[in-house]
Amino acid sequence: MSKITPLSNSHELGLHGNCKDKDEANLLVIREVTNIKIYQLSKFKKSNFDINNFSLDGYKLPNESGLSTGNENLRILWQAPNVWMIISYNENIIQEIGKQCSDSDFAITDLSHSRAILEVKGKDALNVIKKGSPLNLNNFRKNNCANSVYHGITVSIDMINDDPITLNIMALRSFAGSFHHAITDASLEFGFNAI
């Protein structure tokens, strides 16, 4: 059985929008993030587990609203009090999570096939978000994350890097087509390369 990505019928590769007479290095780059594992980790209210004892690849669970941590292969996003989203290219990440999280302390939910993720990279990446979200991004920096809406679609936004600005924007798979259209339509003004 082959895997069908959420945006396999929407994401057309190549240059789009206002690209004429622009250096390709200055265009936005948009790609679908695929072949990843996504887990929601929820700590039970009755649990006495100290989250400071949890670590994946040396990264601790963020304990403040709006924070994320990790690198290009692993992201840990604060989603709500005692709720985190773990996104990883490591196929065996669930075993690493399971070693540290007992069933009596945590609920672990596999969300891997329920999300569409677009990576938007370039100096105008935040302007793309500003076109469709009420989120205040003036102080958004590397390792910040937020849940918001984008043209009426619930999204999670994670700033992976700030030089160049690199955002992972995640929506429910059922909204993948509309989500992709909204992001790419907002990107046309700046010009983008879909890879």
Walk me through the topology.
Layout lengths: L13 E3 L11 E5 L4 E7 L11 E2 L2 E2 L7 E3 L3 E7 L2 E6 L4 H8 L5 E5 L4 E7 L3 H6 L14 E6 L2 E10 L2 E8 L3 H12 L4 E3 L1
Parallel strand pairs: 2-14
Antiparallel strand pairs: 1-14, 2-10, 3-8, 3-9, 4-5, 6-7, 7-8, 10-13, 11-12, 12-13
Measured on Cα atoms, how large is the radius of gyration? 17 Å
Number of helices: 3
Class by SSE composition = mainly beta
Mean pLDDT: 96
Intertermini distance:
25 Å
Which residues sit in consecutive blocks of at least 5 with pLDDT less than 50?
none
Shape: elongated
User: Helical residue percent?
Assistant: 10-25%
Find the CATH topology of the largest domain. Answer: Gyrase A, domain 2
Give the CATH level 1 class of the largest domain. Alpha Beta
CATH architecture group name of the largest domain: 2-Layer Sandwich
Let me know the CATH homologous superfamily of the largest domain: Probable tRNA modification gtpase trme, domain 1
Order of helices and strands: EEEEEEEEHEEHEEEHE
Query: How many separate domains?
Result: 2
Largest sheet: number of strands, sense, barrel closure: 7 strands, mixed
Question: Total strand count, please?
Answer: 14
Strand share of the residues? 35-45%
